[in-house]
Specification:
Elements lengths: L2 E4 L9 H4 L3 H5 L8 E5 L1 H9 L4 E7 L6 H6 L6 E5 L1 H8 L7 E6 L6 H4 L5 E5 L5 H13 L4 E4 L9 H6 L9 E3 L7 H9 L3 E5 L11 H5 L3 E5 L8 H6 L2 E3 L12 H12 L5
Parallel strand pairs: 1-4, 3-4, 6-7, 6-10, 7-8, 9-10, 9-11
Antiparallel strand pairs: 2-5, 3-5
Helix pairs in contact: 7-12
Protein name: tRNA G18 (Ribose-2'-O)-methylase SpoU
Organism: Blautia caecimuris
InterPro entries: Alpha/beta_knot_MTases, Ribosomal_eL30-like_sf, rRNA_Methyltransferase, SpoU_MeTrfase, tRNA_m1G_MTases_N
Length: 275
């Protein structure tokens, strides 16, 4: 039987993770060990659990415990379940819960790029993509469109931030990912990719570029597709260090796409592999 705990005291310290700690505070909550994160909705929580993340508590609308949320919590009879009517939870969290459920979970130690990409043929590099919505959308496209792993530079938004995980529909837990160290990109990171046998592809608005449907790209056994920050795009040094530069053809004098939209186009085309 779950420990069902009716919320009566909004200041209860057990609720700090949901009501009062920022994403950064959650990230640093267990230093020097990995911190915490909040997963939202039964589907996203289930995918996190399947990926090996451990719940420490649940927060759910009372009515939701009669459906998928309740079925999920029953698998963890020793984990506390905080509950209250929707109007009270809205007051507590500041906004309505998506599908009526949150879960505080422990992070895992990040693995090295070499381990993450050991069997990969098509990977994604995100260079300082700072918007969690874009990060989540890119992960969803990467998982759906034949990418094998995602590597992030230190300046990228965290894929486990609540909004990113929600927008990704939980695919941040389905595709392997890790970060480069703060001082590892671009020089050491590029060297790491080359050492693993990847040819690098910068997605950039350069005239001197290769067509995205080039047979030469499809024939490459290993490709690393590199996407840049919102607005500015990839750094000039990153572009110069890549093996290929690819520009997506545009119509109606449109000069660029949002990075998340561009990623879907790139993954669809560059995820094809010549057998």
């Amino acid at each position: 039987m779950n420990r069902i705990i009716e919320i009566k005291d909004f200041q209860s310290p057990e609720l700090d993770v949901y009501a009062r700690l920022s994403e950064v505070q959650l990230l640093r909550a267990c230093e020097p060990k990995p911190g915490l994160f909040i997963a939202e909705s039964p589907r996203v929580i289930e995918r996190a659990i399947q990926a090996g993340y451990c719940p420490i508590s649940f927060l759910a609308e009372k009515k939701e415990l009669k459906g998928p949320a309740g079925e999920l919590t029953e698998k963890f009879p020793d984990i506390p379940v905080y509950t209250a009517p929707q109007e009270i939870l809205t007051q507590l969290t500041g906004f309505a819960l998506t599908r009526g459920m949150l879960c505080a979970m422990k992070r895992k130690e990040l693995l090295s790029p070499e381990v993450i990409c050991a069997d990969a043929q098509r990977i994604v590099i995100l260079e300082d993509v700072v918007n969690p919505t874009n990060v989540g959308a890119i992960f969803r496209s990467a998982a759906a469109l034949n990418m094998d792993a995602v590597l992030l530079t230190a300046g990228c938004s965290d894929p486990l931030y609540r909004r990113a995980a929600r927008v990704s529909m939980g695919t941040v837990f389905q595709i392997p990912w890790t970060r480069f160290g703060k001082k590892d990109w671009p020089e050491k990171g590029m060297g790491c990719l080359a050492g693993m046998g990847f040819k690098t592809v910068s997605m950039a608005l350069c005239e001197d570029s290769v067509s995205i449907d080039s047979p030469e790209l499809q024939a490459e056994k290993k490709l690393a597709v590199i996407l840049g920050t919102e607005g500015e795009g990839l750094a000039a040094g990153t572009i110069a260090g890549c093996d290929y530069t690819v520009r997506i053809p545009m119509a109606h004098q449109v000069d660029s796409l949002n990075v998340a939209a561009a990623s879907a186009v790139a993954f669809w085309e560059l995820g094809k592999r010549t057998k």
